[in-house]
Design a protein that fits this description.
Number of helices: 12
Number of strands: 9
Mean pLDDT: 86
Low-confidence stretches: 303-314, 316-328
Distance between the termini: 76 Å
CATH superfamily of the largest domain: Spore Coat Polysaccharide Biosynthesis Protein SpsA, Chain A
CATH topology of the largest domain: Spore Coat Polysaccharide Biosynthesis Protein SpsA, Chain A
Length: 328
């Protein structure tokens, strides 16, 4: 059996696809297959794939749909493609640094059920770094158990390209459940946590093994619905699968820190109200201290908690000054 299936869903982005196949070409071996799932593209995607099939004969398989389906559904289908023991659903617009595939194969051979790639996030043009390290790790983090994975990873499996998992994890949803989470936009994140066993083991890499082309979150007219309510619904629904409240709350808190704070700051800079973040998130995030202590002061100024915090800060500063003079 092939050790790793790299499954790339794509639609009308032949330029990006050509670049990612170029970054993968020298990393392919007999233990790796690439499956490209074309969502009925109308550009020259087919020509790009055929070029790389000639360069790497026998390593690339090309599947074309006869009609376009919802993008997240194509991602879900990608998780079922290939024959590898481990599956990597890879976004067609990201970049794979040299040596990444070899490292993934090493982790897989060590018996890990999943590998999470530390990554740098760039702007759309891959020119400016937005986030140099998703995880500030000095050494690889080894994770044991599904609750530990939830608490550590939080919403990270929503970055599809960062997740490599043993076959049967990412494709663990039945049709009815899958349709629900495809509509929310985070079906892979739910599938990942759904598919983990109680004894699952995995690793988060300290090294940057993936370069992500970040989205401009400002383009989303339904940002709060997607990144607040959508992620919140997925994570809180996972309690039904037996995840502990503590691990789910840790994951929700990470979501506040990684997504909502930046959104609140951007809205404030643009002179727009951020109260919708608070209102939309209350249902899912109200048990997280990050929601009250970090997001609320940003989303609802001049809220009472902000005024009290300012007064307390001034009082502490004054007391520190008085104490300093008394000691001189």
């Amino acid at each position: 059996m092939t050790m790793l299936s790299i499954c790339i869903p794509t639609y009308n982005r032949s330029g990006y696809l050509d670049r990612i196949l170029a970054s993968l070409s020298d990393q392919l071996s007999c233990d790796v297959e690439v499956v490209i799932l074309d969502n009925a593209s109308t550009d020259d995607t087919g020509s790009v794939v055929r070029k790389w099939q000639e360069i790497r004969p026998g390593r690339l398989r090309y599947e074309v749909r006869d009609r376009t389906i919802v993008g997240n559904a194509n991602i879900a289908e990608a998780a079922r493609a290939g024959t590898g023991a481990h599956v990597w659903v890879l976004g067609d617009d990201d970049i794979i640094p040299p040596g990444t595939v070899g490292r993934i194969l090493t982790y897989a051979r060590e018996g890990n059920d999943f590998v999470i790639l530390n990554h740098a996030v760039y702007d759309r043009g891959m020119e400016k770094v937005r986030c140099p390290r998703w995880y500030a790790l000095r050494t690889d983090a080894n994770i044991r158990g599904r609750d530990a994975a939830m608490a550590f990873l939080g919403p990270t499996p929503g970055f599809i390209s960062s997740v490599i998992a043993r076959r049967g994890i990412l494709d663990s949803l039945d049709g009815v459940v899958l349709d629900r989470y495809v509509a929310l936009g985070f079906n892979q994140m739910y599938a990942f946590y759904n598919g983990l066993s109680e004894t699952a083991r995995g690793v988060v890499t300290a090294d940057i093994l993936l370069l992500v082309r970040g989205n401009d979150f400002g383009i989303y007219t339904r940002w709060e619905e997607v990144f607040v309510s959508g992620i919140g619904t997925v994570l809180t629904d996972l309690r039904r699968l037996g995840y502990g409240r503590w691990s789910v709350n840790r994951a929700l808190g990470q979501t506040v820190i990684r997504y909502h704070i930046g959104r609140a700051v951007d809205l404030k800079k643009a002179g727009q109200p951020a109260w919708l973040l608070f209102r939309t998130g209350f249902r899912h995030y109200c048990w997280c201290w990050e929601y009250w202590c970090v997001l609320t002061p940003l989303a609802l100024p001049p809220a009472p908690v902000v005024m009290l915090a300012c007064k307390a800060r001034l009082w502490l500063k004054r007391g520190s000054s008085l104490g300093g003079r008394a000691n001189t």
